[in-house]
Design brief:
Elements (H helix, E strand, L loop, with lengths): L2 E4 L2 E4 H13 L6 E2 L4 E2 L4 E2 H11 L11 H15 L2 H4 L4 H10 L10 H14 L3
Antiparallel strand pairs: 1-2, 3-4, 4-5
Helix pairs in contact: 1-6, 2-3, 5-6
Length: 129
């Protein structure tokens, strides 16, 4: 799962995370957004943290999303739970980004397509695709 297809290239999970961070916070670790509900470089909501925490068996709090390393661990646990071949068929960068933006079924929501386009543009800018 840590390397997957996007367009005609293989994108690493690190490249995806860096693109998400650029889109979500411009790399600012102490960013607060979405009317105070989204924290950290990945702009993670409290329910996302609780969900990932439950899956990973770790006692993360919403404030832990301000730490970049922990934020990435939270993201990883969330993706391990929801971005699986059993749920998605082929796991792609697009599906993972849309889950990050729209919740467990975000990969199916029309409302997350625009978000994916921003992430895709960042991946292109980075030379990942």
């Amino acid at each position: 799962m840590w390397g997957f297809q996007g367009m005609n290239e293989t994108i690493s999970i690190l490249q995806l995370v860096l693109a998400l961070i650029a889109v979500e916070s411009s790399g600012i670790d102490d960013q607060i957004g979405d009317d105070g509900r989204a924290f950290g470089c990945l702009q993670i909501h409290g329910c996302y943290v609780a969900d990932a925490s439950e899956h990973a068996g770790v006692d993360w709090t919403h404030e832990d999303a301000f730490d970049r390393v922990t934020s990435i661990r939270i993201f990883s646990a969330y993706m391990e739970r929801y971005a699986t071949p059993e749920r998605l068929g082929t796991v792609t960068a697009e599906k993972m980004a849309r889950i990050h933006n729209g919740g467990p079924n975000g990969w199916k929501k029309e409302s997350t397509v625009r978000y994916w386009k921003k992430v895709e543009a960042e991946l292109i800018k980075m030379g990942a695709i």
